[in-house]
Every structure is written in structure tokens, then in C-alpha cells.
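Lab notebook, bench 4. We co-purified these components, and the gel suggests they stay together. Before we commit to crystallization screens, I want a quick structural picture of the whole thing.
Request: model the full complex, all chains together.
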Amino acid sequence: MKTQLLSLFLALSFYGFSQDKSSLLYTSSSIPDSLKKDASAVFRLDEAELEVQSPSRYRMNVHQVITVLNKEGEHHFRHRFGIDKFYTVPNVQIALYNDQGVLVKTYNKKDFQVESAYDNVSLITDDKLMHFTTPNAGFPCTMDVKYTLEANSYVDLPDWIVNTHEGSTEQFRYVVKVPADLDIRHRTQNFNITPRVTTENKTKVYTWEAKNIKVNKIEAGGYELSRYLPQVDITPNRFEYDGFGGSFASWKEFGNWNYPFYQDKNGFNPQRIEEIRSMVTANSDTRSKVNTLYQYLQNNMRYVSIQLGIGGFRPFTVKFVDEKKYGDCKALTNYMRNLLSVVGIKSYPALINAGDNRVPVDADFPSDPFNHVILCVPAAKDTIWLECTSNYNEPGFLSSFTENRNALLLTEEGGKLVRTPHSNYTQNSLVESTTVTVDENGGAKVSGKIYSTGSYRGLFNEITRLGESDQKEAFVHYLQYKAPDKFGLVKNSESRQTDSIHLDFEYDKYYDFKAGTKLFISKHLNKLSDLELKTTADRKIDYLLDFPFSKTFSTKIILPENIQVETLPASKEIVNQFGSYKTSAKTEGRQVELTSVLIISKYLIRPNEYNEAAKFFSAITENEGEKLILKKLD
Amino acid sequence: MRYFLSLLLLFAMPLFSFGQTSVPDFGVFENDEIQLKECDFDRSAEAIILFDKATTTYDDQYNMITDRRIRFKVLKESGIRRADIHLPYYSEDRFQSIGSVEAIVLTEEGGNLKTFTLDKKSVYDRKLNQLYSEVVFALPNVKVGSIIDYRYKITSESYSALREWYFQSDLPVKLSSYNLYMNPTLAFAYSVRKSALYPITIKQDKDLGRTLFEMKDIPGLRDEAYSTAERDFLQRVDFQLSNFTSRSGAAQTTSTTWPEMNKELLQSSYFGSQLNKDISDPALSLSLAAAKSADDKVKLVHGYVKKTMTWDHIDSKYSDEGIKKAWDKKKGNSGDINLILVNLLKQAGLQAYPLLVSEREHGKIDTTYPYLNQFNKIVALVQAEDRDYILDGSDNATPWFMIPPSLLNTKGFIIDKKRSGFYNINDNKRKYGSYIQFLGKVTEPGKMMVDATVKHNEYSRLERAERYLADKEGYKNNFISSYSSFKLDSFNVAGIDDETIPLTHTLKGEYGLEKSGNYYLLNYNFFTGLEKNPFIADNRFTNIDFGCKRSTSFMGTFILPANATVESLPKSIGLVNPEKTLLIKRQVQKSENIIQVNFIIEVNQTEFPADEYDVVKDFYKQMFDLLTEPVVVKYN
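Here is the predicted assembly.
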């Protein structure tokens, strides 16, 4: 009798694994075709219940039933949880069913492995990765996954995102229970649902629910994928992380929480202050002082990421960086700020969501989407922004990693959301001028100069740092230079940051190919443009180029006596809303001069402009592909 | 480079007087080190290891204690990252620990040379996973020109941690010196793997039980295309203990002869005894009853194990908890899965053996040297009447009749009472084969309508089928990504479900011809996968290992409009090296307005030694010239 009661109890409490309900939920046959279309997996159930207990504690129970349809959905078998001393996963249960709905096997936390999480950047963090891969029971098969997540310290609360890019969802439910006096702030994106809200015993309960959410493939080339996915975003009003309490009531408040971390009472000692001041004695205005000190930072410091506990928010001290000459983004930013402060220049750390082409942070929804910090030197006219982890950037140049979005300035008066600069094509320029001296057999000696700014400067600085064989590899396979038989590259400066490099190449055979007595030669040593879009009937989202830019390639070809010009490539000019392209050729005596200039001033292409841009890019490729035709006299 | 091998037992060594090359004291820097601007035997190096010196000795519990000291100089900007030091160690059950970390940096600051000491608080010890940890630290004040001197002590519970000493790394090394005091209760052997180009000093003092290994001026070894394991080519000395039992009794790393190693593995409860466990499976037995040929049986058992078992992404030579448990869990390491496979193949009445293997990435086997750690996993070998099969149940992609690509051109060792011995794993029959049939109809100036069939066979099929299944959309885009003016109208892939037939792609589309002056350029290097010449480096240190033979065949028919003429037709031409191992033949014919371009490319040797690099490099250069020479067409 007793055992019977017990088993009944078990059957009730493990409702998800019981057979009666499962028969339909655990086979793919019951999935409507509309949800199978384009899907690699179908979430039969995607349910999470967040229970906020206090400003420093929450608990989240997740229940997902996932039918994996094919190999493209295989990644759903991999279960990964990021954990650390504040975030734990106390239990997890996975039941695996074959397509007949028969239970194959169950797994639990004991089957998981824990290892140190490695982000490819940091020297050390206290993040750990808890992971397990469910065996594949053949396609299709279904997993019933339940787990609990506990936080005993937090800044932000978990958002719940539906990944419609690769799967569909039969039933979606997100429940948030929060003490009414704490409450939450919330919004939905790409999702037309409003929560049902009830209050019981001083607990407020929000429920978002949706059914039959179809696959919606997101085209490539836009902002980050999550920008386009249906999601419920949650942010606390009050929070406490590692003993530090704060609030998201406004950006001002969140700034107030961060600001004290950047207060360092023991900055530089008097001797260092004297040394720093003496560095800028030759500089009269703010900008030149900033430039000098920024260059000092770039020439002396290196980026090393160390993130431990509150150290994920609080920088290493100024003294530490000054002595060790390394730091992470927070430490280097704070160090630069203190250098400037020694010479009487005020600046502010600015939190930012870094990454190429990220969506600007929503001004109306204070939260913590930040992963990086840069420095802002405010001025009435020309505010200067500094990326303090870069050894190469020109002062004031941010790159597509942080430009065109909102940054949270941390000031004495709290946080202020401000715009980072808009990128501009003049800041990313590449000028390549080469002289090619062709010999009688069609071989050539090439000497050239590459002048670069902005993102190109960063790229060429990275390449010049490499050993010679890797430099050649980068020039040929990445920059698509015609592979030279002799390769030589010289940096025109001893400093860490150079804007010009000199190249000396030799070719046994410089022409691309021969047809009879005619030699065909590419206009330039490498391709001017690798922009390429295929026209499409219905582009839905914006397309973003890495950055706006200008490129000027000029090649002077000096011919030997026995080789003559047969046909010059046609000249062409295109001007439109994206920028301009101009190519021209002229010859005089034994010389041919080929010039191509491409300016892309608009890096954000709207859906309705997409096909026009595609045509522009292919016109450039077509014209640049046109060759100089020479004739060999014998 | 030619390698020679020597296996020397300690007692057989003649006596030499001792003398380890002396190095400056810790933190004392010499003028020639300070003046050094580049490495004269490896000019493009970003940093140079001035010396890497270690002494291994033991305490009264026979713990193995190694004191290591490394001094290096940063020569280029990219070398600054070398100042972030990671020292991994085996931390399970505290088997190893690292202590006494010290470092001094010499850096020029404002015209003066200054030294900076590593702060003990900036040395972190972190656990990587259940087995390994690492000590990490970032050295202070490092710039180009900085010299870094660091040392540490690594203590291991026993001499079973003695594996190898690398004289070479990816950085050039001026002096590499290893001084080994052997635990007197143990016997050991060592094997030196080095190029004849670089001399080695080996001295031993029998009375002290000490052996010294030194090499000087070894250039760095960097990544190269079509290279297998870098480790194969690193100058090193490998060690093997001959009478040692590990704590768990599991790792029998102790054999002195190959037959002994065979015997030990057969007796091991984690290996040999697993082969006799009863894991019979009714469903499998039922389908086997109908199978007649070895082919059928191999196919059935291999397919059943692949379908049933999930690999946990750990490679092992052993079963972890026994194959019965793994069979029940339907999950295990590659040792579990392949012992299950051997077990079931035997039950099916086949001649099946566990085969110790070392995957290409893991490095080549030294057959003179019975050292288990040379191998990284086991697979199943079946010897049937007319052919052999190499099967890896943890590899979901490779079909039963092919060899897993990661094992091509390697050597295995059969574990069996009677049949034990070396086994060469190569495939001289199956190729990395592509076959392209291309019809291009030039309809109006510069525009070509394309109708093509692209077939991938055997190893080429294997590689592509995996990519296709993982991401179909990406695969399709990738197919035409090299041809910027190509617009696809249709794209179909057939044969994905039958691994015995080619993967066949049929596609239709439109391609824009390049134009120059009055000419259009008719290219024909379509879908061959030969877009970039991988062999552009001036020098090569490692062998070029293609794994299997390669064959590409292209048959193109191009129909020109009536008003087009051909300026000049590329020549029909062949290119072959004296050994006929590298070959390209191109045939170009024109009749009326139809141009036929056919070419075949063959690589008939699976591996080329590094000293034949120039031959391969020249061939590839000329081959790419042939492939990129278009038919020049003019409109009248």
C-alpha cells in the first residue's frame, strides 16, 4: 500500500515524463506542417518560470520539449550552461524519446561535465561551462529538458528569446513572479503579445504566452541576429551584485552604480605626476595633449583580460596598470582617464555594446547590454572618443566595433546615454600606389606604397607585425594580391602605429595570361573591391557594410621596348547614393597609368536599395576586371 | 629534411664527462642578449627563446621534480602576446602541481634598462576541467626588445609523467638543455627524433643516473598547408619507462617490447577482457542471420553501432567504465565504442581486432619504440577474405567500406594473441575525386547560360556530404561564392542518402563573362575547388600529406554565338613531373562555334617529403596558370 502511494506521487510530480501525455508530444507526426516548414527543430513546449525572490536572488525553472528534425538541428543536443560563483544550475533532467514516442534514456546533472570557460580573449575569468551532449536517437527524436537556474547575485534578469531563425515553437510561455514592491520593467520585441498580469499575496505574476510561432529565416548581413527575433525582455528595478546594490530606474541610476568603480583614490604618485605633465609640455591645446598621452598609452600598454567577480565591473587600479603595463578595457580606460586628469583634462568612461554593427542600445529601456568600455573626452565642439585597448587606432577613431550607437557615460551625476560618432568614409581610407617595371619577358619588379587610415590602418598594422611568411600569406590569400615570386614589406616607421608601408615584389611572369602575342594584365596588384551582393526579389532587413571607406589604387606600368599597348581599359564613372566609382587609364611613351577610386559613403543599405547596391557592386567588379591588353613584338 | 632515429638504452651508453652549457644567472642579462635585434637563423621570428633549460630529479618519495627555466626575447610586435604565459598541468588527484613561479622582465624605459619582477599575486592557478589545470600569468612591462626570464617547479607524483622533451617550438630556440636524473628504481629508454641538420649532445653519467640532452640554434616550426601533425617534425626526445605500474593500474605505459605491450593490453580489464563481455543484442542478431558475405556483416554491425552509440567527444584507447555500461548508456568514448564494435564483429563471426592508431593530427608512430602514448585511440580492423576494413564507430560520417580520413597514411598496431603487429593504413584505391560536366551557352555578349553536373566521389564526397548535412543553405551559397557574377536558377543535390554513390549536384544559372577591350574572357575553372594555390610559401619544413590520391576531371562544352570568333585558343598541353605523380592535361578544341575544354588533374602520390616541396610548388604554380588561362572571344 505504501509503495503504491509513493509511485502515484512520483507519477504526479514527474508529469513531464509520464507516458500518457507524451505519446503525442514526443512524436513528430503530431507537428503541423506549417511548423515543420524550414525548421530543423520544433519546440513543442518552450516554457520558463522566473521567480524573483529579492534584489539579489532569483530562481528560474525551464521546461522545453524539443523535437529535432534533422542534422541541421543537431546543436540542440548540446546543452551548455555558463555558471560561476553566483549562477548555478542545481538540477537538470533530460529525457530522450525516439520518434515512436518511446523513452530511450534519461540523463541528469551527473552526466554533465564542468570546465573552465575560455572566451579566446581572457587570461583568466571565473566563468565555468557546464555541458553535456544528448545521444542522438535518430532523426526525428524528442528531448524533454527541465532545469533550474539559481542566481544569488545579479545585475540584469534573463530575457527569453524565440529562435525563429532555425526552429518553430508550438507553445511559448514565460512567467515572471516578482514581489510587488520590487516589480520588473519589461518589453517585447518582434513579438506582438502583452502579458497577463495578476497580483496575489504581494506577488505580481506576469505571463506571456504564444502559440504556433513559425520559422522566420533572417537574411544575412543585418545587425546581430537577436535584433530580429521575437523576445520578452526583463529588467529589474533594483538589483544587487556581489554586495553592490543598484537600480535600473533610469540610465542615470545605472550610471550611479557603475561610477564608483572608476574612483581610484590612490592614483599616480607625485613623481609620476611630474613625468606625465612633462610629456605634454610641448602641447598647447587639449587635442594635442590627448594625442600625446594616447600615444603613450598605445606604445606602452598591452591588453590582457582578467575578469574575476566584481572585477568584471571594477577596473584594476591606476597603480597596477602603471607598474605592470597591461590591463583590460576597464583598466586601460581608467588609466587613460587618470593620465588625462593629471594634465587637467576631464574625461568619462563610457559603457558600450561592442561588436561590429550592433544595434544602438534602446534609450527608453535601461538595462545592461554592455560588454565593453571606452573613454570619452567631452568638448563643446569636438568630443574625442578613445578606444584604449587598441595599439593602433588614431586618436578619436573608434571603428565599427563601437561607432554609430549609444554609450552610457559614467559621470559624477550618474549615467548619461550619448551617441558615439557616426562613421565617415574619409576616416577609413586606403591609398595604394605602385610602379611596375615590366621586363622583356613579361616579368616585373614592383615597388609600391600603401597608405592607410582607420580600419585599414589597423589591418595593415596587424599584418606588418607578422613574420614574413605569414605576411605573404596575408597579402596573397587575404588581400588577394597576385602572388609574387619575391616578397618584401617594410614599415615606414619604427613606432607601433604606422600609416604607410612600402612593398617590393618581383614576378617572373607579371601578365595574367597570353593570347597569341597579346598579354593581358590586371589593372592593379590586388582587387579594388570585394563587395558582392546577389539581387533578390524581397529583401526584408537592412544590409550593413563593415564601414564606409575610400580606396584609391594607382598603378604605373613601365613597359620595355618590345612590348606595346594594344588596348587600354575603358574609363568609367558612376555616382549614386552609395558613393562613387571612377576608373581611368592613360598612356604616354612607355608608361601606362591606371587609376581606380572607390568611395562608399553609405554603409547602411535599406531593403529597398538592396538591388540597386547589388548592381553598383557588380558594375565595379565588372569594370575592375577589365584588363590592360599589351602586344609583344618579336 | 631527413630524420634519423636512435633507440638507446641507458646501460648501453658510453661514458662522457659531464657539462651542461652554462647560462647567465636568473635575472642577470648579458650584453649580446640585450643587443640582439633578430634571430640570425630564423629572421622572421617574432620572439626567440634564448634558452630553455630544465633539470628533473626526485625526492625521497620518488616524486618527480622538474625545475625549468626559460628566457626569451620579444623581437616583433606580434611577439608581445608571448608574455601571457600558460603552464598547463595534470591536476586530477593532485598528480601534478606547479610552484615557485618567478619571473623577471628587462625592458628599456626612457633610454634606461630596467628590470621588473612578476608579482606573486598576479599568478593565477585555475582548473580547466576534471583532468587539467593551468598556472597563468601576464608579465609586466613587455615591449619589443624586452627579455623575459621565468622559472618554475613542476612536481609529479611519479616518473610516469616523464613523456618527452621538445627541443623545438614554433619559436626559434638558441639553447635547449634537459638534464634528467632517473629514479634509480626504474629502467627507462629514450628515443631521439631529430633532423640531421641539427647536432645533438647526449651525455650520461651512469653513477649519478643522469643523462643530459642539448641542442642549439633550432629554427621555429610554423603552420603549413597539407601538413599532418606538427609534432612529427619537432626535434625531440621521447622517454619510455620499462617497469612501472601506474597508480590505477590502468595505464600500462610500461612495455619494453611490442609483444609485451600487446600482452599487457590483452590482459587489461579496460581493454582485452572487454572483448569477451557478452553484449549480444537480439535485434542485431536477427538481422545478422540473413547476412551472408563479410561485406554485409561489416555493414550491418558497423551501422548498428554507429546508430546506437553516441560518442562523447573523448578519444581513448580504453573502455572507461566497461563496455556493458557504455552499451547500456548508448554513449561512450571512442575506446568504449570501438571495443563494442570489435566485440560485436567477432560475435558475427568475423576476424576482427582492436587496432591502436594515431590520427594524422596526433603524429606518426615510431615503430622502433614500444610506447603506447604514441597512439591516441583504437578502431576496429576486420580482415576478410578479399579485403580489410578499418572501422571507427565514433565517426558518424565515414562509410564502412572507406577508411576514416584522419587515419589515412598512418600506421596502426593490431592487438591480438596471434595476429599482433604493425598495420599500414592507406588507401591507394579510393580518391578524393571530382568530376565536372559543364555546358555553357553564350547567348548574348558577356552572358553565358550554364548547365552543370558536379559529382564528388569517395573522400571528396565524404567531406562534402558532412558539410551539406550540417548547413544546406550555406553549402549552396558556398558552391558559387567564388564566381561573383554567377546567378543560380536551380541547385539540386542527389545521392546524399546512399554513401556508395557519388554526391551529384545539378545546377543551372547565368554567368557574366569578364570583358577587356573588345574581348570577352571565357573561363573554365568552374567548381573544381581549385581557387587558391595553397603552396605559396617559399620554404617548407613538414611533409605535404594529401592523405589520399586526388583526381579532378572537367569536361566543358561552350557554345558561342555565330558572330563570335576566338582570338586565340589555349593550347592543348600536358604537364607532368618525372615520377608521374603530379599531372595535369588540358585539351582545347574548336569546331564551328563550339569549344570543348577538357582537363584532368591528378595527384597520384599521397605524401611528398618536405625536400620535394619545390617540385610540388612549381607544379601548382604552373597548374594554376593553366587553369586561369581563358579562351579569348571577340564579337564581330
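Chain B touches chain A through 64 residues (CB under 8 Å). Worth comparing against the SEC data before the next meeting. Residues 127 and 146 of chain B are 30 Å apart (CA to CA).
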